[in-house]
């Protein structure tokens, strides 16, 4: 036997602790603690990642971090017109992003109503990569999404991706250079 993977649920299934213990040599390569408002994960060689969220003032307060690495604090709130406003602060980059996302069209899907066209605009101030990012997302149906947008930052770019149930295609073009890429991934 090479490793053990114990998992422990709390009495009322409010939290879950999983880990992977290698037996030869004895080492802990993975630990994951999940609880109702977040999760803490340690992966050997990669470090510690955390995420936590808390409903607050009609929105969602979130904190995400990686040690060693960065911390991200955000508050997401949807106003009465359906616009999602998300201010976000990133540390140690010391940047501030103010995200706006608005659904432009809706479609009924069974008992749910889902957005079919969304527009988002995210200006970033300070830090190592200030600028503006805009995206238009079109959900053709439940299996096919088209995303296109542009970023006016230190390295301006235009991007587009097409994703479906079985395949994912993405392209990237940069201003001022001859960069072009096409990526194809197959999902089972």
TrEMBL record:
Superkingdom of origin organism: Eukaryota
Signal peptide extent: 1-28
Alphabetical keyword list: Signal
PANTHER family: OS01G0729900 PROTEIN (PTHR34541:SF2)
Protein name: Uncharacterized protein
